[in-house]
Design goal:
The protein is mainly beta. It is built from 4 helices and 25 strands. It has helices spanning 19-22, 25-29, 35-41, 51-54, and strands at residues 8-9, 12-14, 57-65, 71-79, 85-90, 93-100, 103-110, 115-122, 128-135, 138-149, 152-160, 166-174, 181-188, 191-197, 213-222, 228-236, 239-247, 253-260, 264-272, 275-281, 287-295, 301-307, 313-321, 327-332, 335-343. It has a 24-stranded antiparallel beta barrel.
């Protein structure tokens, strides 16, 4: 593994800043997408996001079953005839959703003390370009997205209002011919906090371990049967890692591995015969924890288990379904949830 030829490098440079400035990075680095809506549409957090649409669900109620057998209503979700969630009530918190066709345009949440709202604006290509967020009718933040082409983001800028207004910006420069990123920059109030340099030298690593930088380099390896692996060499916090991800010839995920110093396995993730396995290890190769999940042929989760560092089972969850991904019952240790449905007429 140490002799892999590195084809693509992504060095990262820490310019300045502290944890307070870095805490905004992920929220401007990763674009809002329809995945947010899909998560809300899911009947249950481990469930299929399209189950409500496929089964013409009108409402679903989630109950907690008490020790005496009584049911306590926890959550109610209401869907339109397109399978999009339009109302969610969790205990005393109620959220409503509005759409333009299938594009989410606004949400409004109310609890006993406050109200929260969000509005979403899209361009002609149905790409999100502006989010506004409110609390008690007053705008708390807004985010603007500018695109290079298609869904490739050129910049994301978030303004957080308050006693001290913050302007958080993440921008990327692209090669106009290759259509690939060449650099990225992260700013807080106009101050450069982090920089990524996406240029690459073909002769392996370009960053020394003792520098305050991190690099990520990738290498693809094909096998005779058409399957292939993607390797990523990462230097982060002066530690050397090697990631390996295996795929079938049809690009179906098989397994991924993460090694410390190219030799010590620190994590493994696999999916085979409808069983998902994740294992985490220390840098000395000792087990930290592992989780196992079993699925049916339609990729509905049936059972999940969690084991501690002594490989002792600490939790066990089971899932039962009515049909087509509609969960009927969830049992975790001694806790039990049940679900009840109404449906739209076809």
């Amino acid at each position: 593994m140490k002799n892999l030829i590195i084809l693509l490098c992504f060095p990262f440079v820490l310019i300045a800043g502290n944890r307070d400035e870095l805490k905004y990075l992920n929220q401007v680095r990763w674009n809002y997408s329809q995945n947010n809506v899909l998560r809300e549409n899911a009947i249950f957090w481990m469930g299929n996001a399209n189950a409500a649409q496929k089964n013409n669900v009108a409402t679903v109620k989630r109950f907690k079953v008490k020790k005496n057998g009584e049911k306590e209503l926890i959550e109610t979700k209401v869907y339109n005839n397109q399978g999009m969630i339009i109302e969610r009530t969790y205990r005393d918190i109620k959220t409503t959703y509005k759409y333009n066709d299938t594009l989410l345009t606004s949400t409004f949440t109310q609890n006993k003390k406050s109200t929260f709202g969000s509005s979403y604006t899209y361009d002609k290509e149905q790409r999100l370009i502006h989010i506004k967020q409110f609390k008690n009718g007053k705008m708390r933040s807004e985010t603007r997205y500018v695109y290079f082409e298609k869904n490739k983001l050129l910049s994301t800028e978030e303004i957080i209002y308050g006693k001290r207004t913050k302007v958080i910006r993440y921008e990327t420069t692209f090669d106009e011919i290759l259509k690939k990123p060449t650099a990225a920059f992260y700013y807080v109030n106009g101050k450069l906090i982090k920089k990524w340099d996406f240029s690459c030298q073909e002769q392996g690593e370009i960053v020394k371990k003792d520098e305050k930088q991190a690099s990520e380099c990738t290498y693809n390896q094909s096998n005779a049967d058409g399957s292939y692996s993607i390797f990523k060499r990462i230097i982060d916090n002066k530690k050397l890692y090697l990631n390996r991800t295996d795929f079938t010839k049809d690009s179906i995920f098989i397994a991924s591995y993460r090694y410390y110093n190219d030799s010590v396995l620190v994590s493994k993730n696999s999916f085979e015969n409808n069983v998902s396995l994740y294992e985490s290890y220390t840098h000395k190769g000792k087990l930290r924890y592992k989780s196992i999940a079993k699925y049916d042929e339609n990729k509905n989760i049936l059972q999940s288990e969690f084991y501690n560092r002594r490989n002792k089972k600490r939790s066990n969850s089971s899932y039962n379904y009515i049909k087509n991904g509609l969960i009927k019952e969830y049992i975790a240790n001694k806790n039990k949830l049940v679900f009840e449905y109404t449906f739209h007429n076809n």
